[in-house]
Write a structure and sequence with these properties.
Layout: H1 8-23, E1 30-31, H2 33-41, E2 52-57, H3 61-70, E3 74-80, E4 84-91, E5 94-105, E6 110-113, E7 128-131, H4 132-135, E8 139-143, E9 146-150, H5 154-162, E10 176-181, E11 184-189
Parallel strand pairs: 2-5
Antiparallel strand pairs: 1-2, 3-4, 4-5, 5-6, 6-7, 8-9, 10-11
Helix pairs in contact: 2-5
């Protein structure tokens, strides 16, 4: 759920603040999507990103909502119980966004993210399977004097989500499109046909 681009320094502050809040209630969370990509690929937030992305178990929906509302965040237009919540807050004069993608246990091999980048949680064909063996157990990395959780194998998951060219700084919807095919992510580069 894209918003305006946010300065890297502000987004970094938002990331650290969010992790400190989450650490008060759980260790069952990790950065994901663009936030994971930036931290793994560049060791930092992607310059010009519009939010911070987190992957959390659906059972934490109410706890997370209560925690963030009680700490001055507001819910944006996107709040679909147990699937996705986007919170807004301010750092200085800048509005920041924090996205929570809630996952469900699917089977022994996968979890399922029903929201992902499509935002169609009631369309089973758009659900995304994420392999557990590359996700769990989360590991913490040092980032600007804080500890930030990453999936167990961010290298694999970056390639899984963003394709073989994930190390290149490409622009979504300009250089590539993200799709779900057979409940797995597929990247189509602008010069390819699906």
């Amino acid at each position: 759920m894209a918003g305006p681009n946010i300065a890297k320094e502000i987004n970094s502050e938002s990331l650290i603040k969010t992790c400190k809040l989450l650490d008060n209630i759980t260790n069952e969370y990790t950065v994901f999507f663009g936030t994971m990509l930036g931290l793994h690929r560049e060791g930092d937030i992607i310059d010009g990103d519009d939010d911070c992305d987190f992957l959390v178990p659906s059972k934490l929906y109410n706890k997370i909502k209560n925690l963030f509302l009680s700490n001055g965040y507001i819910v944006s237009n996107f709040d679909v119980k147990d699937h996705f919540t986007q919170f807004k807050s301010k750092i200085g004069d800048t509005e920041v966004l924090v996205d929570f993608y809630y996952y469900f246990d699917y089977d022994e091999e996968f979890i399922i993210d029903k929201w992902n980048f499509y935002g169609q949680p009631f369309n089973k064909q758009k659900w995304m399977l994420i392999p557990k063996k590359y996700l769990f157990d989360f590991k913490k990395i040092k980032y600007k004097n804080s500890l930030i959780p990453l999936p167990k194998d961010p290298e694999y998951l970056c390639q899984y989500l963003y394709g073989e060219r994930y190390k290149e700084k490409l622009i979504k919807s300009v250089d590539y499109q993200m799709m779900i095919v057979n409940n797995k992510p597929k990247i189509v580069y602008k010069w390819e046909k699906n």
